Structure formats: structure tokens, C-alpha cells
Amino acid sequence: MKFVCLSFLFTLLTFSIIAQEATGSIPFVAYWHAGDSYDFKVTKIKKQWENGNFTKNDSTSYQTNFLVLEETESEYTIQWSYQKVFSAAIPGPLEKQLTEGIPNQIIYKTDETGIFKGIENWQEIAKAVNSIFSHLTIEGELEEQVANAVKPIVNALNTKEGVEMILFKELQYLHFPFGIEYTMGEDITFTELLPNSFGGDPIKGNSTISLHELDQEKSTCTLLYEMILDPEDTKRAILDLLARMGQSNDEFAKALGNMQFDMCDQNVLKYFYNPGIPMNIEFKRETLLTHGGEKVFGIEITRIELIE
Question: Cα separation of 184 and 207, whole Å?
Fold first, then answer.
């Protein structure tokens, strides 16, 4: 039961390529125009193994549309339309209601280079989440224990950051590479501070980005982005979330204190860098929980593919 709970928490907090000889660098900026429209297929996959036994294999996919509504000298306004099943980080009793109840169009802005700035209609989404949660609670469709566990998620979804990082994380992925100049043969190494959507201190990650393939004739490139999350920061965030969910006690906290948490991201991003549209990007997070002789290994994948 503990491992099931921890697997759920991992979700709340989530290649083989032949290199080509190439030289050069590219400034990764958006070259969009009002009226530009692109369709994508988004796929989310979750797999889990407990002590070597395959225990989970969930996947969902849906189609989205990226439409540039407005272009100015300083920013772009984008409409992101979708038919979506909210499976990542959303418990079953809330998932169906969210799918049917929240708006199916998101309006958000980027700066002039394509860096994600934020969702404009996040309050409309937060209001819908609150209404759905209240209905499920009043009607008794959520047991008290489940309602208490879901409450931190609902609280997070009442914030702009929570809506962006939990429900629409794929937008962060889509705009991740913008605003940086990449050069073949030069790795960009840095420390990231990942925001904790549920409150508390951010989680530190050690990251590297590199330009792996570049075809200047076709204006295409492949970026590799890897990150290793700090194990102690990860453990602290999980303990804090358990307390917020009312699932923590001294015995459980002590057991968690003796566990080892390892998380790493291995991500591949293939783009038409001009105009700045992904062909196929895949964000993959691997998690490993070790406690004594017990091991729980999980993989989460978010894939965004251009529909041509």
C-alpha cells in the first residue's frame, strides 16, 4: 500500500540517436505569425515495476491544435485547443469530471522569442475545478479519506502555477528550448530550481542541454536535455505532500526517511527551428524507490508529435 501511494506521489512531482557530423549554431526563437495553425498528437504513458514485476501500464492520447491569435513586437498570444483526458496526477474520481467540465481552449502568452509566459484564462479553469470538487464532495461521491487526499491537488489547481504545471505541463515542454542559442559540440550545463506546485521549497535538478543534430538546409535540429533531481529535495517534497494529504504519520515518515529516491529525465526534442515548431518531442522521467530489498521503478513519458 505504501508503494502504491508513493507511485502516485511520483506522478504529482513527471534514447538512442545516431549523431551526425555538423557544425554551426542556432538562436532558438519563434518565427510565428497570426493565423499560423498546427495540429499535434499528445501521448502520455505511465509504466511501473515492483521488484522486477510489471504492475502498471497506462496510456492516454489526444489531439490538440496550436493557433497563433496575435503577434506583436513583444509577445505572441496562443490558443491551445484540445480533447483531453486528465490522467497524470489526477485521481480517478476527479479525472472524468475534469475531462467533461473544464474549458477545452486555453489562451496563453509567450514573449517575442517564444518563451512561455503564462495561461491567461487560468481562473476560469480554477473555478471549474472548485465547482466539480464541491459537487463530488456534497453528493458524497468522494469518500472522506479520498477527499482529504485530493484536497491539496484542488488547492494547487486554484493557483496559476498549479494549472500550468499540473494540468497543462505539456505547454512547458513545447516551449522549453526557446530563448537560447545552441552550438554543436557545446553542452549547456546548469542547476534548475523546479517549482513545487503544492507549496514548499523548489526541487533542485542538475541539467545539461546539447545540440545533437542540425540540418540547416531543412531548418531542423535535435536537442538532448537531461536532468538529475536532487534525492534529498525529492524526499523532502514527498514528505511535505504526504503531510498535506493527511497520509503521513511518524511510522510512515520514519520509513520514508530510510528510503532512497532517484529521479532522472532523459528528453529528446526534434524541431523545425524555423519557424519553431516541434516535429516530435519526448520527455521521459525515470524514478527508482529503494528501501531494503524492495524496489519500485517507474517511467513516465509525455510525447508531442506534429500531425502533417
Answer: 17
Q: How far apart are CA 285 and CA 262, in angstroms?
A: 10
What the block records as the C-alpha cell of 118 is 503564462
Contact 47, 85 (CB under 8 A): no
Q: What's the gap between Cα 33 and its chain centre?
A: 26
- Grid cell 523545425 is found at 272
Q: Model-level pTM?
A: 0.80
User: What number of CA atoms fall less than 13 Å from residue 196's CA on the CB side?
Assistant: 20
206: left (phi over 0), alpha (psi -120 to 50) or beta: beta
In 24-41, which positions are buried (b, 16+ CB within 10 angstroms) versus exposed (e)? eebebbbebeeebebebe
Return d(Cα 286, Cα 266) in angstroms, integer.
Answer: 8
Pair 172, 116: CB distance under 8 Å:
yes
Residue 17 pLDDT more than 90?
Answer: no
Q: Alpha carbon 79 to chain centroid distance?
A: 19
Q: Which amino acid is at 188?
A: I
pLDDT, tens digit (0-9, with 9 covering 90-100), for 206-229: 999 999 999 999 999 999 999 999
